[in-house]
Amino acid sequence: MAATLRAAKRFLQFPSKVTPTLSRSIFQIGREDPKNPNWIKVGLSLSSTLLLWVMLIRHHNYEMTEYERRKKDS
């Protein structure tokens, strides 16, 4: 029992050579400046959102007209 607890304790500890404060994520290169936004990213995200909403509404209208046409035929 004691050997199992020692093995579990050793497994759950941080390695002594790598400390979490000194390690960096490879995806975090720099901090984003909230006073100077990246307008290209803002424009792309807003335009893609608008495009998706337009496509959704057009598809919904198509489905509703098809539903009404089939309802009238039967």
What would you say this structure looks like, in words?
Complex I is composed of 45 different subunits. Keywords: Electron transport, Membrane, Mitochondrion, Mitochondrion inner membrane, Respiratory chain, Transit peptide, Transmembrane, Transmembrane helix, Transport, Ubiquinone. With 74 residues, the protein is mainly alpha-helical. The chain contains two helices and no strands. The longest helix is centred in the C-terminal third of the chain and has 35 residues, at 39-73.
Helix and strand arrangement:
Blueprint: H1 2-12, H2 39-73
Give the percentage of residues in beta strands.
Answer: under 5%
What number of domains? 1
Mean model confidence by pLDDT: 83
Secondary-structure element order, N to C:
HH
Short description:
The protein is mainly α.
Features:
single chain; 74 residues; mainly alpha; 2 helices
